[in-house]
Structures are given as C-alpha cells and as structure tokens.
C-alpha cells in the first residue's frame, strides 16, 4: 500500500507519494488517499512530490495483475485513476508537480493533470505501457496531446521510450528545470491567493470564446475591487 503524507504549512500543502521501495507505485488505496489529500486542501498551492528519488512509477503492476484480466474491473481501475487526475486538475489550488527521478505511466499522467510541472536534472519520463500490451488510461490519451501536441504525444506513447529532463523540457512536458522544484511552488505561493485561483480557473476554462471572455472580465472586476488598495500602492 502506498503511503500518502501531507504537510500543511500555509500557503503550501506538500503532498508526498511515500512508497520508495516500489518507486511510489500507486494502488487503489494510494489513489484514494491521494484524492483525499488534494480534496481536503484549503491552501492556495499544493506541491505534489514523490519520495526516495522517484516521482511515481505509475500503477502498481501487482494491483493490475490482481484484476485477473477482468474487463469491467480494469475499466473501474482506470476510472479511479481518471477521477484522481480530474480532482488535481479541478482543484481550486494551483498544483505544482515536483518531479525527481522517474515519472512513468500513471505517475506521468497524474503529473500531466497538475498546473505546473517542474523537473530536476535527474528526472525521466515515459509511457511504457505499450511495451507490455497496455497504455496509460488515467487521462493520458487526453492530456498528453494537449500538453505536447499530437505528433510528440503519439511518438512518445507508441514507442514506449523514456526521455530525459532536457528533452522533456524541449517537448514542453515540463515547464521548468530546477535542482529544487519546490522553489517554483514557493514563487507561485508568494502571489495573491484569489488571483491564483482566478487565473487557474480562467486558463482551464473550456467554454466557448464569448463565455470565456465574459468570465474573464467578471473575474478581473472582482480582483480590481478586492485589490484596489494594492493597485494604489503600486502607482504611488
């Protein structure tokens, strides 16, 4: 069973996947614990990391084996992972993935659901499922092309190959490369929480253009009202 530990130190909640002996592979219990840790957050920034020099190896293969080839149970397991990824994506908090070591399969897919992905020079990335007849089903086929574009997403998933930190940065799989990824979470957390939440909601908005522009204007109005004194201070 994976341990998920939470350290709440406002304005950042640190959520750690803590099963280093299995490279933080995710079981059903681990996924449920992770979803709870994200759902319960009231901090404006969540920093998601793995312990022991790995982010996550993805789904626990023993848990997959325990499905005994049952189609419906396998689909249920996929839906559980998809739900956790949606919880990360839909959280009002900004979720920063700090990726050190391997992020594979479901681990990469959970990172793709985060708002910002920061890797260390030792981080590596891959969707190896195709090499043993599977593929990443925790939203990977949805988010990978959205992040990389269809061409790079297809090549990475169809080859099953692993890419290093520099190539991941070039592809846009990660947005920053840092020795200590938490510094990026701290940089983000230094900003106004309501502005962070508004920005995430507006950039994540999947409505039509007119609706998005209307919501953007309304959100801007609320922030101007809330931060009138701050604006005046800047202008002085």
TrEMBL record:
One Pfam entry name: ECH_1
PROSITE patterns for this protein: ENOYL_COA_HYDRATASE
SUPFAM superfamilies on file: ClpP/crotonase
Domain of life: Archaea
One term of GO molecular function: catalytic activity
Family of the protein in this entry: Belongs to the enoyl-CoA hydratase/isomerase family.
Protein known as: Enoyl-CoA hydratase
Species name: Natronolimnohabitans innermongolicus JCM 12255
Organism ancestry: Archaea, Methanobacteriati, Methanobacteriota, Stenosarchaea group, Halobacteria
